[in-house]
Write a structure and sequence with these properties.
Elements: E1 7-9, H1 13-23, H2 29-47, E2 53-59, E3 64-70, E4 75-81, H3 85-92, E5 99-100, E6 102-107, E7 114-120, E8 129-133, E9 136-137, H4 141-152, E10 157-165, H5 167-176, E11 181-187, E12 190-191, E13 197-198, H6 204-209
Parallel strand pairs: 1-11, 4-5, 4-6, 4-8, 8-10, 9-10, 10-11
Antiparallel strand pairs: 2-3, 6-7, 12-13
Helix pairs in contact: 1-2, 2-3
């Protein structure tokens, strides 16, 4: 795959360790859900290193000092339904005041193309740093469309976070939206004929919600 300046692989030992657990077909729903949340927290720590900040005055027991804090109302999280919901709480653990929107896209089983069925976003989202989340970046179609929907609504600072990605998906998003930073924990080998990532972890939504 061609190298892109907007693609970042967060290859930390803790992330690799947790990734091994969720790949295992014997990992149950409870543990799978917990690890997805933990991975989102670990990845968010690095993905938001340029989060908007502001300086405030804090009075310690000894004196008044200036400190840097995360700027209020500066972050929005937008999961792509339904699997993206599994990552939201992990990011909220770091940014509990972040606003949360939702984008619903379903994939045509024959063409693998995404179709929109739901979009509900926080007010003034165009003024926030928006993190789009989806555990699996496979064909890239849903991510490209979700980002395009946000741009149409005036969003200028958009990031994408996926736990596992296929090269074709990363390439599609990177080409379509070169201004969007893409954060993944690993690049897997390829897609199979049904659009699933190999080696992957199966259907993330089914494993998060226990529907299979």
């Amino acid at each position: 795959m061609q190298k892109y300046n907007n693609v970042f692989i967060l290859d930390h030992p803790l992330i690799r360790h947790k990734l091994a657990i969720i790949r295992d077909k014997n990992t149950d729903t409870k543990q799978f859900r917990e690890i997805i949340k933990e991975l989102a927290t670990l990845m968010a720590y690095e993905s938001f290193k340029d989060v908007p900040t502001q300086e405030i005055e804090v009075e310690t027991p000894l004196e008044i000092t200036k400190q840097t804090v995360v700027k209020e109302n500066s972050i929005a999280i937008v999961p792509i339904l339904r699997a993206g919901l599994g990552m939201v709480d992990g990011i909220l653990a770091l940014f509990p005041a972040a606003k949360v929107g939702h984008i619903g896209l379903y994939r045509d089983e024959e063409t693998l193309e995404p179709h929109e069925y739901y979009c509900k976003l926080p007010s003034n989202i165009e003024d926030k740093v928006v993190m789009v989340v989806d555990p699996m970046l496979a064909t890239g179609g849903s991510a490209v469309d979700a980002i395009s929907m946000l741009k149409k609504r005036g969003c200028k600072r958009i990031k994408l976070m996926s736990i596992i990605a296929a090269p074709v998906g990363v390439e599609k998003v990177a080409k379509a939206h070169p201004d969007v930073e893409i954060f993944v924990s690993t690049l897997d080998r390829c897609l199979n004929d049904k659009g699933y990532i190999l080696p992957g972890l199966g259907d993330a939504g089914d494993r998060i919600f226990g529907t299979k």
